Amino acid sequence: MEKKHEYYDVVIIGGGAAGLTSAIYCGRARLKTLLIEKSLLGGLATYTNEIANYPGFPDGITGLDLMKLFEKQAKNFGVDIKLTDVKSVQLRGEDKTVETFRVIYHAKSVILASGGKPRLTKAKNEENFLYDKGISFCATCDAAYYTDKTVMVIGSGDAAIEEGMFLTKFAKKVIVSVIHDVGIMDANKIAQEQALKNPKMQFLWNTVVDSFEGEERLNKVILKNVKTNELIDVTVDGCFLFIGYEPNTEILKEQIKLTKQGYIITNEKMETNIEGVFAAGDVRDKFLKQVSTAVGDGAIAGVGAEKYIAESELFQNEIMQKEKIGLIYLWSAIDEKCRNLLVHVEKVEKEFKDEIKVNKIDVYKNAGLAARLNMQLDVPAIVYTKNGNIIKVLNDISYENICRDLKIINE
Amino acid sequence: MAELRLDCLGEACPVPLLKTQKKMEGMKVGDILVVEIDHSCAMKNVPEWARKEGHNVEIEEVDDGQWEIYIEKTK
C-alpha cells in the first residue's frame, strides 16, 4: 500500500497533558497542527482518579475529566488529532517526517511529548499475562472486571495506593506487595492512612514478585521476601503493576540525545539537540512530573515551535533572499561600537538601495536567527550573500570597507 | 489488497471486539478492515487487541463520538 503524504507546520507526538497543551498553543498561533496519540487522549493523567493539586480546580477533578477539557480546548483551536502509533521519525533538516502505518506526515517542527509506559517487574512469565491475561496497569479501566474477586497490587507509591483503594470498591480483597519494611510506603500520608484503615486491603511487606503463574490467565503470583528469600504463593484473579514508568523514546534514540534512562535531554526552552525539535512532559529528563509541569513544558514547546517556524521563514525569504546582494549586519543594541557602526551601515543601505538588501540582526534578541548563519561570529560583523549563499564576512566595518567589498562582489 | 468495512455502530462491548476478531480470521495478510464504532469502550479494547496481535492500527474520529478503526492484517 502506497503511503499518503500530508503536510503540517507542527506535528506533536503524544496526547497527554504536555502534548495537548502544545497543541493548544500551536493551534492558537494559527499553525497547521497535528497531534498523534497511540491509544487514548489524556495520557497518564487519565489513570489517576483524583487530581487535587492542579490549580483552578479547588474541589478536585478526575484525571479523565480534566484531560477531556484539554482535548476540547485543543479541538477548539482547530488541531487535527490522529489516534495511531508512530512507526518512525526523521527529525533532522528542515523537512522532518513522522511516519504512521498509513501516512507520512511532513512537519517544519516536531514536539515530542510521548510520555512513558508502565515499568514491568521483569519477573518470570510476566509477558505471558500482560493486559487482558491478568496483569493490568489501569484500575479505572479494569476494576469492574474484578468485582468480588481477589487482586494484587505491586508498588507503594501514590498510584499504587490510590488505585488500590479504588479497586476495593469492586474487588473483595486487594493484596498490596510492598518492597519496604512494615509500615513504609512511598505514597502521600493521607493515602497511606486511608489505605491502612481500609478493611479490604492487606499488605505484604518486604516482598517483590518472583514469578507469575497460571494457565490461560494469571491465577497465582509468587512473591519473594527480600529479607528471608522465602517464596510466598498468593492466589489471585489479577495483578496491577504500579512501579513507575519508562520513557517512550525507543524510536528516537538514534537521533535525539537521551539520558542513560532514556529520557530526552532539553534546555529550559524545551529544545532538544536537533533544531526545530522540542520535547515536553514526562518524556523529558526533569525534576517533577505532574500535570502542572507538563502544561508548562507544553506551553514553552508550543511557543518555541511557533518561533522556530517564523524564524525559518524569515531566514529563508528575507535574510537569504536571492534577488539582490545581501548585507547582513550582526550587531547588539547594548554594545556601543555596534550602535556607532549602525550609521555606516544605514548610509550604505540608502546609497545602494537598488542593488543590495540590508538585514540587521540583533544577536541578543535573535540568537536563533544568528545561529542559522552557521558561523561563530563576534559582533559587530557583516555577512555578504549572493544568490542566497554566504560569500564573505567583514569584521573591520567602515563605510569605505563596505563600499570596497560591494564593488568586488559586484564584479 | 482489499479494504473491508465492519459496521458496529450502536453496539456495546464486547460485541465490536468479537465481530472484529471473527472478521479478521477470514482476511488475508495485507487486507485492511475498517471498523466503525460509536462506543468509546470499543475504542480501547479493539485497538488494544489488534496491536497485541501485531496488526497495524489507526483510529480516526470521523464525527463527534464516532470513530473508524483501521486494522491492517499483518500475519
TrEMBL record, chain A:
MF (Gene Ontology): oxidoreductase activity, acting on a sulfur group of donors, NAD(P) as acceptor
Disulfide bond among keywords: yes
Alphabetic keyword roster: Disulfide bond, FAD, Flavoprotein, Membrane, Oxidoreductase, Redox-active center, Transmembrane, Transmembrane helix
Pfam families membership: Pyr_redox_2, Thioredoxin
InterPro entries the record matches: FAD/NAD-bd_sf, FAD/NAD-binding_dom, Ferredoxin-NADP_redctase_2, Pyr_nucl-diS_OxRdtase_2_AS, Thioredoxin-like_sf, Thioredoxin_domain
The keyword Transmembrane helix belongs to this UniProt entry's keyword annotation: yes
Transmembrane domains' residue ranges: 7-25
Domain Thioredoxin: 311-395
Domain (FAD/NAD(P)-binding): residue spans on this chain: 8-298
PANTHER family in the cross-refs: THIOREDOXIN REDUCTASE 1-RELATED-RELATED
Protein name: Thioredoxin reductase (NADPH)
Organism listed in the record: Caloramator quimbayensis
Automatic annotation (TrEMBL), chain B:
All residue ranges annotated as the UPF0033 domain in the record: 6-30
Entry keyword set: Transferase
Database matches in InterPro entries: TusA-like, TusA-like_sf
Pfam families the UniProt entry points to: TusA
Gene3D superfamilies: TusA-like domain
SUPFAM superfamilies associated with the record: SirA-like
UniProt entry tagged with the keyword Transferase: yes
Domain of life: Bacteria
Entry's Gene Ontology molecular function annotations: transferase activity
PROSITE patterns tied to this protein: UPF0033
PANTHER family referenced in this protein's UniProt entry, alphabetically: SULFUR CARRIER PROTEIN YEDF-RELATED (PTHR33279)
Family: Belongs to the sulfur carrier protein TusA family.
Protein name: TusA-related sulfurtransferase
